[in-house]
Specification:
Number of helices: 13
Oligomer: single chain
Number of domains: 2
Order of helices and strands: EHEHEHEHHHHEEHEEEHHEHEEHH
């Protein structure tokens, strides 16, 4: 396969009236920077008081300020007038809301039909199981918990509220601290190294790319790991929490790459069956590599993830393929640029 690079790109000039937009949060800096690198105008939609990063890092040609995300409908009118394409990320889906996202009239990069499969952990499991991936056990009844398990709340909240439970009594004690939370999944806790695989699938070329990998730095579970067992015994009772506070880049063993490619291709193939035309653009498989070098997938994110943010100038993998700076954010813009040049933009808009 010939390596893709900027010299392979069509020479047509970019339409000057097309803009790339997203909500100012999560991976917006990377998305907007990548769009500018590909020649697009950029628009950030920010809550008032949160616009400073997008001004300081000079990634937004225009900033639309709103008082709350309930006002996004007003911002949408401006985006439509600006001929913008909206790029979703986790904060976008969380703040605007799944129901409102489905009602958007502004052009949207991605397949909205896949979002209900991502948002519901039971449907996610059905998707991943149908793709033939290794997945942890699920306990539908707390009474059946017989091994260490992790309780995860539904939605894109960055690990907020997650907790470990060793049996039913432990579960009841800890779930009582979250009386407002109704939807959760009790999942077998797999021992190993957490790993997050960042993919990009193009419906134009029908190719799957591995963009990068990351591991998450979580509070306070990672800081607890620096405290000896003896000293932990002397501390007041502390429940581990799994709130993501940052992302660390990682390069995996090269011998594992064939399995990661295979998993990504199976997930895309299954998505075409459950939610035509299927998953495309960036997505992430989140899981654990066990000591026997097997990967257990516990979640899928069907859009760009914050774990790609360490790679604003590209990763070792994108450098191998493109031989230029290619973040996931820029890869999205490159796909839109290619689609415009080939009159295939409808393939990318949900």
């Amino acid at each position: 396969m010939a390596r893709a690079n900027k010299d392979d790109m069509p020479k047509k000039s970019m339409p000057k009236d097309v803009a790339i937009s997203t909500i100012g949060s999560h991976s917006a800096l990377q998305i907007l920077k990548g769009a500018k690198d590909e020649g697009f105008r950029t628009i950030a939609v920010c809550l008032k008081g949160r616009e400073r990063p997008y001004q300081s890092f000079k990634v937004a040609d225009e900033i639309i300020l709103i008082d709350s995300y309930d006002d996004f409908a007003e911002a949408e009118k401006k985006l439509i007038a600006e001929n913008a394409i909206i790029i979703p990320h986790a904060s976008f889906i969380e703040y605007v809301g799944l129901e409102n996202v489905n009602k958007l009239k502004v052009p949207y990069f991605g397949n909205k039909a896949i979002l209900p499969w991502e948002a519901n952990r039971d449907k996610q499991r059905e998707w991943l199981k149908g793709a033939g991936l290794r997945i942890p056990r699920i306990f539908t009844d707390p009474k059946t918990i017989d091994i260490p398990s992790i309780v995860k709340f539904h939605g894109a909240a960055g690990g907020k509220g997650y907790f470990l439970a060793k049996n039913e009594a432990d579960f009841r004690k800890k779930i009582a601290k979250h009386p407002e939370t109704k939807k959760y999944t009790i999942q077998e806790y797999i021992m190993g190294v957490p790993m997050y695989v960042h993919y990009f699938y193009s419906p134009i070329t029908n190719e799957l790319e591995i963009m990068s990998f990351d591991v998450r730095y979580e509070s306070n579970v990672d800081s607890l790991g620096r405290v000896s067992a003896r000293d932990q015994m002397a501390l007041p009772e502390i429940d581990p929490s799994y709130v993501v506070v940052g992302n660390l880049p990682v390069v995996v063993r090269e011998s594992l790459l064939p399995e990661f490619f295979d998993m990504g291709e199976k997930v895309v193939a299954q998505s075409k069956k459950i939610a035509p035309p299927g998953l495309f653009g960036p997505f992430c498989l989140e899981g654990v590599i066990t000591p026997d070098a097997h990967f257990y997938t516990f979640e899928i994110s069907a859009r760009i993830v914050a774990g790609t943010n360490p790679y604003v100038t590209g990763s070792p993998y994108s450098q191998l393929r493109y031989n230029e700076s290619m973040s996931t954010g820029r890869r999205i813009a490159r796909e839109i640029r290619n689609a415009i040049n080939q009159d295939k933009l409808k393939l990318l808009l949900g």
